[in-house]
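Long-time lurker. I teach an intro course on protein structure, and each term I like to show students one example going from raw sequence to a predicted 3D structure in token notation. This year I'd like something fresh instead of my usual example. Would anyone be willing to generate the tokens for the chain below so I can use it in lecture? Attribution to the forum is fine with me.
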Amino acid sequence: MLRNILLPLLAALPLAASAANLSDQLTQKAVLNQNVVRQIAAAAEAEARRNNWNVSIAIVDEAGRLMHFVRMDDTPNSSVEVAQGKARHAVNYRRDTKFHQEILEKGNAVVLGLPDITPIEGGLRLLAAGKVIGGIGVSGVQASQDAQIARAGAALLGD
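-- Reply from a regular --
Happy to contribute to a lecture. Here you go:
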């Protein structure tokens, strides 16, 4: 009977010891926080204002969830969803939206079959140490101008 009790306990000892060390094996990574996100959005908005462009600016986390949104005055209604779509696209595909726009421009319409895609310039990955930690999407003016605004915000991360 004692053997039936001790054997499972002894067998569990190596598991308990290795479980204690599992936290040492976890991946360490940078994540966006509200302080950083607000600064990114402010830099993007400042670029838009410098050029008298009214846009929507969306910033999402690495899972594509909205963290911050700015809709400037007199911005088209459609820019709200497009900005968020561009930001999610950048995160989900780990590519700036221009990548898929260029594929589409070359005549490869298969891109349009990808789920939750917005292949229009103006969505950028937000990077830290080469890893995607979020995305920024801008919509409201020409696609290249949207991208210019997004770059002004993303540049704060320096990656």
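Some talking points for your students: The chain has one domain: 34-157. The domain at 34-157 is CATH 3.30.450.150 (Beta-Lactamase).
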